[in-house]
Amino acid sequence: MTAQQQKEEIEKLTTQFFDELEYLNELREQYNELLKNGYFYLAKSRYSMGLKSLGQLQYPENIKSTFTITIDSDNSLSIHERQDKKKSPSSSSNNTSSSSSSTTTTTKRRGGNKESKTKADSDDESSDDESENNNNNQENNENNQDGEKKPATPKRGNKELIKKDPIYWFGIMTPSTLKQSQSYFKQSINLSLEMSNKIILLNVIEKQLEELKKNQQTV
Amino acid sequence: MVFFGGRKHGGMFTFNKDDGYLEAILRGFKKGILSRADYSNICQCDNLEDMKMHFLSTDYGDFLAGEPSPLHTTTIAEKATQKLVNEFNHIRNQAVEPLSTFMDFISYGYMIDNVVLLITGTLHERDISELVDKCHPLGLFKSMATLSVVHNVADLYNNVLIDTPLAPYVQGCLSEEDLDEMNIEIIRNTLYKAYLEDFYKYCQYLGGQTALIMSDILKFEADRRSINITINSFGATELTKDDREKLYPAVGILYPEGTSKLSKAEDVDQVRGVLEVYSTYRNFLSDQGMNSNSERSLEDAFFEHEVYLNRMAFEDQYGYGVFYAYIKLREQEIRNIVWIAECISQNMKSKMNQYIPIF
């Protein structure tokens, strides 16, 4: 690669870097907006339901995640709804080497009260893959329970829906504001994933840039 | 008219002998309810510490004294509730029959909430002592002390609930084998239905102004529950229409015709159609009423009407309606304060004026 080509390449990557950065900032704004609305509707629901019927006492002691985040072969993250059935062994054969990096990105991405502590429950068959336990929707409850994990666990097998959707912890007949709040928090999960993928991409670009610059100096 | 030891309830000549003092105290308490000026002061606060300062000049005084900062909205709510509970107990402790029973009836509603909280907690394997701490202080009952030995729902009923005034309501709606979120919801609503009907019956039995004022308030409360149950259950496919109908209280303006129509409703429009013929509720579900982005939601309309009814109770004399109304107005005030505090702490000042002023 000639010096000229290298220069061009550096410039191209720099532009790409800032484009992605700008996009990331946009995503962050959207994310903030979603969380803001989520918390607001949560406050509204507590206004109508009463403080005591919407709090940490309503969710189970040992909650499991309803979503898992997996690291794909190209290092990007993807989100899946957790299957209640036991996973087949093949599904857990993803590369484990990247698990530590997944933890860091997730932690970075979520910042503050949204980071998950990643320990799979002992009875959770999928704990052997590197998936990240992810809280879904309305964690946040009043006291911002850091790292509190949500998802529903009821033992009954016949009512799948109740089993799955954590909104039912707060009653079958919850007001529409709570459902809205939940949907905002749900959206924020996908967005946070998108954001972390962007951050990963940015890191990759940054590394490439550094390498190119090193090469340039040696040349 | 019912006689209590030779005294007639609600009699113009005898009412003050037993209840006049307490009513006077209560009307004094009522003077402490925040006015519009107080609200506008509180709304101008930039943070919760400022709010605490403003409360000093109101009836709340230094109720937040000694609370470590940063203040949390939950703390404010707890302290304000405690103040209300102290006032309630002050009156309850001096009340004689039938006012004492009437006030006990008020506390049963909170007991139901507590029971549901306990059952939910037990189901979710929560620590029982943690649950008792969080129970509403007005709904505490003596046998709660024995709760530490309770490990399942059968114990809960046999050791705790059986000795409470709720026992007659509980019978027939607790079943151990299939207790899940669904059944808890049914238990909650069945209990509340039984409670409302019983309270209504008691007020009718007392007669006089009490029956007059309370029947309006309780009928509204029953209708509100029916409408809420209907609307909130639209998403929940597990609840059949027959089940839903069983949860509607058998009192209220809507009962029986309206509730029977409500039980068949499948969406909000149909509910709106049912309510169309009831002048009180006609405007509650206006087009923007269901849109929670609008300034005034259905919930707000209900709260507003509740405040109106309770305020009207104070225009009346020789009845117990004021005792109930005062508690409810104060509760609304606490909700208002918490709402304003939430808006301040979430930096959503534009939504702040959605509270419902009382006087």
UniProtKB/TrEMBL annotation, chain A:
One protein family per Pfam: Vma22_CCDC115
Chain intervals for the UniProt region annotation (Disordered): 78-160
Residue stretches of biased makeup (Basic and acidic residues): 112-121, 146-160
GO BP terms, alphabetized: vacuolar proton-transporting V-type ATPase complex assembly
Biased composition (Acidic residues): 122-132
InterPro entries for this protein: Vma22/CCDC115
Coiled coil location: none
GO terms of molecular function: unfolded protein binding
Composition skew (Low complexity), residue ranges: 90-106, 133-144
Protein name: Vacuolar ATPase assembly protein VMA22
TrEMBL record, chain B:
UniProt source species: Polysphondylium violaceum
Coiled coil: none
Gene Ontology terms: cellular component: proton-transporting V-type ATPase, V0 domain; vacuole
Name of the protein in question: V-type proton ATPase subunit
Superkingdom of source: Eukaryota
Keyword Ion transport: yes
Function noted in UniProt: Subunit of the V0 complex of vacuolar(H+)-ATPase (V-ATPase), a multisubunit enzyme composed of a peripheral complex (V1) that hydrolyzes ATP and a membrane integral complex (V0) that translocates protons. V-ATPase is responsible for acidifying and maintaining the pH of intracellular compartments and in some cell types, is targeted to the plasma membrane, where it is responsible for acidifying the extracellular environment.
Quaternary state and interactors: V-ATPase is a heteromultimeric enzyme made up of two complexes: the ATP-hydrolytic V1 complex and the proton translocation V0 complex.
Single annotated GO MF: proton-transporting ATPase activity, rotational mechanism
UniProt KW Transmembrane keyword: no
A Pfam family the protein falls into: vATP-synt_AC39
Keywords, alphabetical: Hydrogen ion transport, Ion transport, Transport
Family indicated by similarity: Belongs to the V-ATPase V0D/AC39 subunit family.
